[in-house]
User: What shape does this take?
Amino acid sequence: MILRPPRSTLSSSSAASDVYKRQVIGRIDHMAVGPGVLVVNALTSNLSLVLNSSNGSILQAFPLLPNPQGAAIASTSPTVMALANALDGSVRLFDWASRTGRFELKSTLQLGQDADNVRWDQASGRFLVGYGSGPSAGVAEIQPGRGVVGRARVPGHPESFQILNRSHLAVNVPSANGSIAIVDRRSLEVTRLWGVWSMGGEKLDGNFPMAVLPDRGLLLVGTREPAMLALLDSSTGRTVSAVASVGDTDDIWWDAERQRVYQTGGQGLIATFALMDDDELVRLADTPTSALARTSLFVPESRLLYLAVPKTTPTADEAAVWIYACMT
Assistant: This one.
């Protein structure tokens, strides 16, 4: 086995925590980690939770958020957290207050609509946030203390995007005929549009998750129509390998130390792939999880993969975050 059986988190340490825990019903979206904390966005419940990453206790809750989707924590001093919200297109920035051991709201920025994925770019000291749909869609660059410092338009709502290098982004735009938009961060323009193809020339659509392999000059893209994992040359967009993968995929992670790929999907599986020296993807194992558990977070430093397991009905088991230890 590649993944050890999970332990669960999202525990209660007070009566107030019990209330918040019971409120987590429906879809759980993106997560983020920071020093000692795990942030979980319960999108359907309009709630973001800050958990103790060691024992799962709820340290802080942000209720009444308008469909929180994306989260990222910056490695700055003080630590800054960004939460992106779908319903009103806002991004809320929080500073970590060491005196109280809590995040405190510092500013709210409006991007337009459907603020979604968030990345922290250490090189530029900026958060990158995908937002919008149709002609209003784009990726915004946000500098803590200054606000929005740039916007690059893309041809549809941006799903996962990755930083290829200091000057370019790769952005999944499934609504634009399953395209990948290559964005020049200096000009804030889309310079190329790539399609995603199988090795046999079949068009692949529903490209939601993405991961970059900077050490190998490659890009991983997961598609839902059909369920495939494609490996692309990150300079040309050429497909170099493609294999069948997990249904209803939402996240892909690259484990550079082990040369492994972990992919999660609502089908109820974690698929583990090996990337061989000749850039061939080989499916090694499938780990059963839970239906609709598609959102995940891999932390290379701790060798842990966090999987969001939603509570889909009022009578179902409580929502949880399952934690897998990746083994050699």
About this structure: Helices lie at 15-23. The first helix runs from residue 15 to 23. The two ends are 9 Å apart (CA to CA).
